[in-house]
Amino acid sequence: MSMGKKIPATIVTGFLGAGKTTLIRNLLVNAGGKRIALIVNEFGDMGFDGSLVNGCADPGCAAEEVVELTNGCICCTVADDFLPTMEMLLERDNPPEHIVIETSGLALPQPLVRAFSWPTVKTKVTVDGVVTVLDAAALAEGRIALDEAALEAQRAADDALDHESPIEELFHDQLRCGDLIVLNKADLVSADALSAVEERIRKDVREAVHIVACEKGSLPISVLLGREASAEDDMAHRHEHHHHHHDRDDDHDHDHDHDHHDHHHHDDFESHVLSVPAFASLQDLEDKVLAAMRQRGVLRIKGAAQIQGKAAPAMVQAVGPRVEAWFAAGTQASGRLVVIGLKGLDLRAVSETLGLAAQAAE
Ligand SMILES: Nc1nc2c(ncn2[C@@H]2O[C@H](COP(=O)(O)OP(=O)(O)OP(=O)(O)O)[C@@H](O)[C@H]2O)c(=O)[nH]1
User: Domain CobW C-terminal, which positions (predicted)?
Assistant: First the structure.
């Protein structure tokens, strides 16, 4: 690294299942020899995304190093997990040319951006840009409701939904912090629906922030990296929608986040790792996972499962009404599914739907 030149860091944020991991894999494969370090932060007990990227079979994959933060949400573990990881990367003889950080789909990006003001990091790294990945198909279906009336109707109709549902707040905060907004899954929506989604979110993004549409996170590296936003110096424009759990004057106070370990939005979510028995077929797995997704409070299911009579485990990914399952030859069998959802989700129903005897919460 030449003296004085800070290493750019790109933060990839976005709601559960929006396509962050897919976008990052694409970026790493197309990195053109650039040395990129990847830091992943997974909500839940299972570092699934880390293993997905680690297991990237593509010879073009440029991930120099994948570091997984396992102690939970970045904003709660800035001091004991995130900062030491950054320092470790920076102290290497051959530091990375770019750092990519994937936040958990339930984390606010703002506290992470603020952590870049930490003295040992600030002089060496700058936030090149926050890339906010959105699920265009989910938005087109109004799944993350921006329409107040529809939202109220939905809440009124569903006792399980807390009046203070954190999802929309989280979503607005992720939009507000973005230097580039990616409308992913464009293949699943019509051009008209895509324009309508863009129109709806435009008012929530900062001025001059680009909104781009793509499929499978496939964007040129020149669009994703090198935005030179210096986001850490621009917190005033990235205010959290609901910052009420914090003091108001903490924008320049980097101690703040590492002192606060509670009252973040992700407290309103929970995740469980379930050990599942072998499924009869890929279809059986898909059907059961889809049924589990329909249970109260469930937002995302992913993992690997055994299929009777097959050596290769099946990977499964579920977001909203879409479930994908496929055989992953050469991977270790695991038979574990991560279920993520709103606090108070019906784990018993989920377990039963997946063919398990009701399992204790982890
Ligand atoms: N049809 C379609 N599916 C996509 C696209 N991008 C991603 N997916 C699928 O959406 C699912 C979620 O993608 P991920 O990249 O794991 O999403 P993520 O944002 O990392 O999700 P979390 O792990 O919940 O944080 C996977 O099944 C992907 O294959 C896309 O552009 N089109």
Answer: 270-354
Q: Is the CB of 187 under 6 A from ligand 1?
A: yes
Give the pair of three-digit tokens for residue 312. Answer: 């290769």
Whether ligand 1 lies within 6 angstroms of the CB of 300 is answered as: yes
In the numeric block, which tokens belong to residue 217?
């996170």
Please state, in angstroms and rounded to a whole number, the distance separating the CA atoms of residues 118 and 79: 10
What does 130-146 look like in DSSP terms, one character per residue?
A: EEEEEEHHHHHTTSS--
* Ligand 1 neighbourhood includes 215 CB (under 6 angstroms): yes
| pLDDT digit string, tens, across residues 267-287 | 577 888 899 999 999 999 999
pLDDT band (50, 70, 90) for residue 362: very low
ipTM of the modeled complex: 0.98
The H-assigned helical ranges of 188-231 are 191-202, 221-224
From 22, 39, 135, give the residue whose CB has the most ligand 1 atoms within 8 Å, as the site to mutate: 22
Of 234, 263, 292, which marks where a domain is finished?
263
Nearest CA, atom 15, ligand 1 = 19
- Range of 311's domain? 269-353
C-alpha 17 – ligand 1 centre gap (Å): 5
